[in-house]
Design goal:
The complex is a heterodimer of chains A (about 110) and B (about 140). By secondary structure, chain A is of the alpha+beta class. Chain A contains 4 helices and 3 strands; from the N terminus they run αβααββα. Classes of the chains: A alpha+beta (about 110), B mainly alpha (about 140).
C-alpha cells in the first residue's frame, strides 16, 4: 500500500472511470467536467498516464470498437485501481475535513 | 475536407515520435482522440497539443518498460537504443516541429512563447535522460 500522494491527473482519470468504462476522448471530457474546467488533459498527457496505469494494472482495456473508421478503445478500472482510488479519495477527504474543521474553529469561514 | 486531411497528416508526423511498437498498438486510437478534439476548420496541430505529444513520446522512449506478455525477451529499452541518441534526435525534432509550427506566423509573441516552451522541454528531457542513464548504469 503506497503512502505517496497520487498525482491529480491520475486521480481524475481514475475518477472518470469509477462509474464505468470510457474511451480516451470521453475520459478527457470527464476530467474537465469533474475538475469544473480547471484541468484540461492533452491527448499526449492522457496516453502517457494510461500507459503507466495499464503497466501498473490499475486500468485495463475493456473493449474496442470501430467508429467512423477509427479505433475506439474503452478503459476500465481494475480491482487494484478501484482500491487505490478509494484510498486516495479517503485520504483527500480526511485532509479536507481537517482543514475545514480547523478553519471553522478559527472562524475562518465566517460569512 | 482538405483541412481535416492536413490536420491528420500533421498529427501523424507528431505520432511518428513514439516508439514503433507503441505506435503500432495505439496510433489509430490516439489519432481518433486528437481528431475528435480538433476545432472546426483547424488546419494544424496546436502548439500545446504538439508539445504534449512530443513530451509523451520522449517519455515512452526513455522509460524502461516492464516486459509485456509478448515481449519478454526484449531489452528494457525500446529496441535497445541508447537514451542519448534518442535525446539528440528528439531535440532536433523538437526544433524542427517548433519552427514548422510558428513559421509564417508574423506575431513575435508566438516565437517568444515557442522558444521558451522549447527550451524548457529540452531541459526537462535532458534531466530525465540523465536520471534514467544513471539508473541504467547500476547493475540490474
Amino acid at each position: 500500500m503506497t503512502t505517496r500522494a497520487m498525482q491529480e491527473a491520475t486521480f481524475l482519470i481514475l475518477t472518470a472511470l469509477a462509474d464505468g468504462s470510457q474511451h480516451g476522448y470521453a475520459i478527457m471530457s470527464s476530467v474537465e467536467e469533474i475538475s469544473a474546467g480547471r484541468v484540461r488533459l492533452r491527448a499526449g498527457t492522457l496516453y502517457t498516464a494510461l500507459d503507466r496505469l495499464r503497466l501498473d494494472e490499475q486500468v485495463a482495456v475493456d473493449r474496442e470498437e470501430i467508429v467512423d473508421n477509427r479505433l475506439r478503445r474503452y478503459y476500465r478500472l481494475t480491482p487494484k485501481g478501484t482500491r487505490l482510488l478509494a484510498a486516495e479519495a479517503a485520504r483527500l477527504h480526511a485532509n479536507a475535513s481537517a482543514a475545514l474543521s480547523r478553519l471553522n474553529l478559527a472562524g475562518g469561514l465566517a460569512t | 475536407m482538405t483541412d481535416s486531411t492536413d490536420l491528420e497528416r500533421g498529427y501523424r508526423r507528431l505520432l511518428a515520435c513514439y516508439p514503433p511498437a507503441y505506435r503500432d498498438e495505439n496510433e489509430q486510437e490516439i489519432l481518433g482522440v486528437l481528431m475528435d478534439g480538433a476545432r472546426e476548420g483547424q488546419k494544424r496541430p496546436r502548439l500545446a497539443e504538439s508539445a504534449a505529444l512530443i513530451r509523451s513520446a520522449l517519455r515512452m522512449r526513455l522509460r524502461p518498460r516492464s516486459p509485456q506478455p509478448d515481449e519478454r525477451q526484449e531489452p528494457s529499452y525500446d529496441r535497445g537504443s541508447s537514451p542519448w541518441i534518442v535525446v539528440r534526435m528528439s531535440i532536433i525534432f523538437l526544433i524542427v516541429v517548433a519552427v514548422g509550427l510558428v513559421a509564417g506566423n508574423p506575431n513575435p509573441g508566438v516565437w517568444i512563447v515557442a522558444g521558451c516552451v522549447l527550451g524548457a522541454l529540452i531541459a526537462i528531457d535532458i534531466v530525465v535522460a540523465r536520471r534514467i542513464i544513471g539508473r541504467n548504469r547500476r547493475p540490474v
